[in-house]
Write a structure and sequence with these properties.
Length: 368
């Protein structure tokens, strides 16, 4: 049996007519940037973030960059984040001319380790970016306490965790600002690139609103150096439809994850930490022979992906930071051992059974 790693068409089959109708509505209206659909999506999406404001932008990388700039990060500053994340988290920091400074992750949740945060803060640190990896929030209470004591704003990277919670509050509602990605494979995915910045601070919202649109305070009046990063109307229309089914899709992901939890043997499965609601953007298992396991699953028709084999401090683009292997051991071990299994709404029970059987057949032979 073939089990693709992801299948967006399968996920969207039940709402495809609504999506086509929404896109047709945009085409007939003839307004494609900063219009009615974008305004409506921002209003409808804001409650999911727990924030008063949600501002659509061109992509998740821009969302991080604009959020950081809106809270005061500038060239020459330091921003603390984790090395166990997509490279775009670091790229957003570097795009501002700031320097990423890394804090290792906890071994189980793979999110920022609060016990190591103080040591990562420098005199030039102007923001902290915890990454809510794979669908689970970082341990925010101690991170926020350290940040508050130091007077450093927190910008949450919620690209992989829309709908997740910490102490019953939505991911994205804790920091000075938060960033979201609507890349097609995300839990709330567009039909192209897209992102958003969320915040409860009027000043941050106003700044992002200007920055995303060339620094304009009003039409043709540019009061600062901004960028061109707007969520277009077609993507906003698609996202409005998908936002309506996000709660049900999240439940489906959690049910599938629980089924993996129960059935898998001989691998380390993801752990949902106390106080946190996991939304399973990815279901990443760990095994010391990860690459051999991936090959065995491929031979059995099971698609997998490694997220992320090279931590940021070992990426060639950050060679100038002078960080060698051994600097962040938990991130490095995770990069060596993690393997993401298929998990998405529409994954059929027999497909998931095939994944479980293939993993268990491997571990029965090779051990855990």
């Amino acid at each position: 049996m073939q089990v693709p790693f992801n299948a967006i068409a399968v996920q969207d089959a039940a709402i495809l007519d609504e999506i086509v109708a929404a896109m047709t509505r945009v085409a007939q209206r003839g307004w494609f940037v900063l219009g009615e659909e974008g305004d409506a999506f921002e209003r409808e999406f804001a409650p999911t973030t727990g924030c008063a404001h949600a501002l659509g932008v061109g992509n998740g990388t821009d969302a991080i960059r604009l959020a950081l700039e809106a809270v005061g990060v500038a060239a020459g500053d330091d921003v603390v984040t984790v090395p166990m994340t997509a490279a775009f988290t670091g790229l957003a920091i570097s795009m501002l001319g700031a320097r990423p400074v890394f804090c290792d992750v906890e071994p189980v949740t793979l999110t920022m380790d609060p016990a190591k945060l103080e040591a990562a803060i420098t005199p030039r640190t102007r923001a902290i970016v915890p990454v809510h990896l794979y669908g689970q929030c970082a341990d925010l209470e101690p991170i926020l306490a350290i940040a508050a004591r130091r007077g450093i704003p927190v910008v949450e990277d919620v690209a992989q965790a829309v709908g997740a919670q910490y102490d019953g509050r939505p991911a994205g509602s804790f920091g000075a600002a938060s960033s979201f990605s609507f890349y097609p494979t995300k839990n709330l995915g567009a039909y192209g690139d897209g992102g958003a910045v969320a915040t409860n601070l009027d000043t941050v919202a106003d700044k992002v609103r200007r920055l995303r649109n060339g620094g304009q305070s009003q039409r043709y009046r540019h009061v600062e150096l901004g960028v061109n990063s707007r969520l277009d109307e077609l993507q906003a229309a698609v996202l409005r439809v998908k936002l309506g089914v996000l709660p049900a899709a999240t439940i489906a992901r959690r049910v599938l994850a629980a089924r993996y939890d129960e059935g898998l043997r001989g691998v380390q499965i993801p752990q949902a930490a106390a106080r946190r609601r996991h939304v399973y953007h990815l279901y990443a298992i760990r095994h010391p022979q990860r690459d051999v396991l991936a090959s065995a699953l491929a031979a059995a028709g099971v698609g997998t992906i490694v997220h992320y084999p090279i931590p940021l401090h070992l990426q060639p683009m950050y060679a100038s930071l002078g960080l060698a292997r051994g600097a962040f051991p938990e991130s490095e071990r995770a990069g060596d051992e993690l393997l993401s299994l298929p998990l998405y709404p529409g994954l059929r029970p027999e497909q998931q059974d095939a994944v479980i059987e293939a993993v268990n057949a491997f571990t029965a032979q090779h051990g855990g």
